[in-house]
Write a structure and sequence with these properties.
This protein is of the alpha/beta class. Helices cover about 65% and strands about 10% of the residues. The longest helix is centred in the middle third of the chain and has 90 residues.
């Protein structure tokens, strides 16, 4: 029985409604069920024990009318349900009172004019219970039924000739006593219950507010715990790294102690030179540490985010190729295209990884990067993510920048892909990429009309690691962290302007580099490799006579430079190179030149000593280089060689 009543009381409740709304629905169902039960019991007693058939019928009709309250709740008409219940109970009391006095006038006693009145008085509790005080109009309207029925109790009975005096009752104080006390009691009870209900609702509102605060605090606590866990993991990794560094430091200290013992016999006059060298070494170490951190970040991006998925894709495509007999020609062609694209992608990643494998100095080498050329590469890689209607506009007022190409590529790719990923579903994406320059910096702007970011809430965490602000798309929360890290690695800074549901604009400031001509890529006691970003030329300067191993090592390094930067121009200063074994020269001409031509080398300026290289020898070397597609010119000084390369570079640009 209790389970049945519980099911009836929950009719009309929904998870989409608030707790207060569901509670009011349950209370209205409870009151309706109570009225139905009370009427059924009262009608049964009157019929069985007093044979009052008419009155029993009226009461049964009132019970049936109460079922409409539950029906209205079931179809979602919650306000009508509660107003009907408030009206039906009050009017039913008045109507049943009139019917009973009309049917059994001879049995009416003076108490019959008071018992119905006080039963009517009690109906005020229904609207007070099932309406919230915030529903002011509905609350007062529901309460008005019981009040009006109470005020017009005697006039309605008199109108039906069933009043107190009409039925032969006597009592001069009846009207004053009956109405004054009943209305006074009504007013007192209503005011009291309204006051209690206001306190209850205030308490409930405060409880809801406290629950919300507690929920928010719990969410913040969960977030804080995750951050602490990440920090603990980072601290643990740093501790392990510090342990390794300490061991290396101990080994270094032992070496230093040995060197200090050896240095004790050196002339005191060399102390100033040693101090200067130490200062230079400290600056170089600080710079090396900075670039090592940049390399570690780049290595994480390449090896962790790209190499794993590419390896799996290669493996899956090979497995598909093994099933050739089960594939249609069209399917097999698609498999081959997937394999080809994957191999091309793998080659790009290997090229990027090579930046990490080569010495750190290469990674800090700045190139002359044309924004339009670099954007074309980025745009091609984003083609698969662009949807119909999306517009991408470029305006490169600053045509080029001297910087590190993989960093510029990564910044453009991450900002553009974020704009595409978080575009607004309500309007087509409009993405604009601009560049401009001042006397001190180059500025790149990436602006979209996407979802935007609430900077008041997330501004301080925007560039944090693993932070995401939209969860409807996949992502790791790494893109903006990488962008900020890479921008700062080249001495720049990034700003963001955003408005929720309107769009976002990133502004990246790149300072103009101070030196891009003579960038040293590799240096040793027997030679140095340099790169000139303005002319896109690389070169080598020999410092002393070299062994066969040193000679080949330097040319391996030169070949890596040409492969990495695809430079068409090369300057070789061999004035201090000394004698080179003919086998090594043959190896250089037959191995290095073909590979260099493959990677883009077209012209070589060779600086030599006139008394060590006769004209016939120069002609033979030039002819050999020409066989591999390389044009070689000879000079006796650095200035003329660089002027020739500059002229060739300008001609190439034209």
């Amino acid at each position: 029985m209790i389970s049945f009543l519980g099911k009836i009381s929950r009719i009309g409740t929904k998870g989409t409604l608030s707790a207060v709304q569901n509670r009011n629905i349950i209370f209205s169902n409870y009151f309706a069920t109570s009225v139905i039960g009370f009427c059924l019991v009262l009608a049964t007693v009157l019929f069985l024990f007093y044979q009052q058939i008419i009155l029993s019928g009226c009461i049964l009709f009132a019970a049936f009318a109460s079922t409409l309250t539950i029906f209205f709740n079931k179809i979602g008409r919650y306000t009508i349900s509660r107003l009907f219940l408030s009206a039906e109970t009050s009017v039913a009391c008045l109507v049943i009172s009139i019917f009973s006095k009309n049917a059994y006038a001879e049995a009416v006693d003076p108490p019959n004019f008071f018992d119905a009145r006080f039963l009517l008085l009690s109906t005020f509790i229904i609207p007070i219970t099932i309406f919230s005080l915030s529903e002011r109009k509905h609350f007062l309207f529901g309460l008005s039924f019981s009040f009006l029925c109470l005020v017009f109790f005697d006039p309605v009975h008199n109108l039906a000739n069933l009043g107190y005096h009409d039925l032969g009752q006597k009592g001069g104080d009846y009207y004053f006593s009956a109405n004054f006390y009943s209305l006074t009691a009504y007013a007192f009870l209503v005011v009291g219950f309204v006051f209690i209900k206001s306190l209850q609702e205030k308490s409930e509102s405060e409880n809801v507010r406290l629950i919300q605060q507690l929920t928010a605090a719990n969410m913040q606590l969960v977030t804080t715990n995750k951050e602490i866990e990440l920090q603990n993991n980072e601290i643990q990794a740093q501790s392990e790294e510090l342990t390794t560094n300490q061991e290396q430091l101990m080994e270094a200290l032992k070496t230093i102690e040995q060197q200090q013992q050896q240095l004790q016999g050196i002339n005191v006059g060399l102390q100033s030179t040693v101090i200067e060298k130490n200062k230079q070494l400290t600056e170089a170490n600080d710079q090396l540490l900075k670039y090592n951190n940049e390399l570690l970040q780049f290595s994480f991006t390449v090896s962790h985010n790209l190499r794993g998925p590419i390896a799996r894709l290669l493996g899956l495509s090979q497995l598909l190729e093994m099933e050739q007999k089960n594939l249609t020609p069209a399917q097999y062609q698609l498999v081959q295209l997937i394999q080809q694209s994957t191999h091309e992608f793998d080659g790009i990643v290997k090229d990027l990884s090579k930046i990490i494998d080569i010495r750190n100095e290469i990674y800090r080498i700045k190139e002359k990067i044309r924004f339009q050329d670099e954007w074309n590469v980025v745009f091609n890689s984003l083609q698969g993510y662009l949807l119909p209607g999306m517009q991408v506009t470029t305006q490169f007022d600053a045509a080029h920048i001297y910087s590190i190409r993989p960093i510029i590529h990564s910044i453009l790719y991450n900002l553009a892909s974020n704009a595409i990923k978080y575009h607004s579903p309500q309007r087509p994406l409009n993405l604009t990429i601009r560049s401009s320059s001042t006397a001190e910096e180059v500025v790149v702007e990436v602006e979209d009309n996407g979802l935007g970011i609430n900077l008041e809430l997330f501004g301080d965490k925007l560039f944090s690691l693993y932070k995401r602000f939209h969860t409807h798309t996949e992502g790791k929360g790494l893109g903006l962290y990488l962008v900020k890290t890479q921008v700062e690695s080249v001495g720049g800074r990034i700003e963001v302007f955003s408005e929720l549901n309107k769009g976002t604009r990133f502004v990246v400031h790149f300072p103009l580099p101070k030196e891009v001509e003579g960038q040293v890529v590799f240096s040793s006691e027997f030679g140095s490799v340099f790169y000139n970003a303005r002319t896109n030329a690389a070169g080598i300067v020999w410092h002393a006579s070299v062994t066969s191993a040193q000679y080949r090592k330097m040319f391996h390094k030169c070949l890596e430079m040409v492969e990495l930067y695809h430079t068409p121009f090369w300057i070789s200063d061999i004035r201090k190179q000394g004698r080179v074994d003919p086998e090594d020269q043959k190896w250089m001409l037959t191995h290095t030149f073909p590979q260099a031509y493959k990677f883009g080398l077209r012209k070589v300026a060779l600086i030599y000593l006139a008394h060590e290289m006769n004209e016939d020898y120069r002609i033979r070397i030039s002819a050999t280089a020409a066989q591999f597609g390389v044009d070689m010119e000879f000079f006796t000084n650095q200035v003329d060689a660089e002027a020739w390369v500059l002229e060739q570079s300008l001609n190439l640009q034209v």
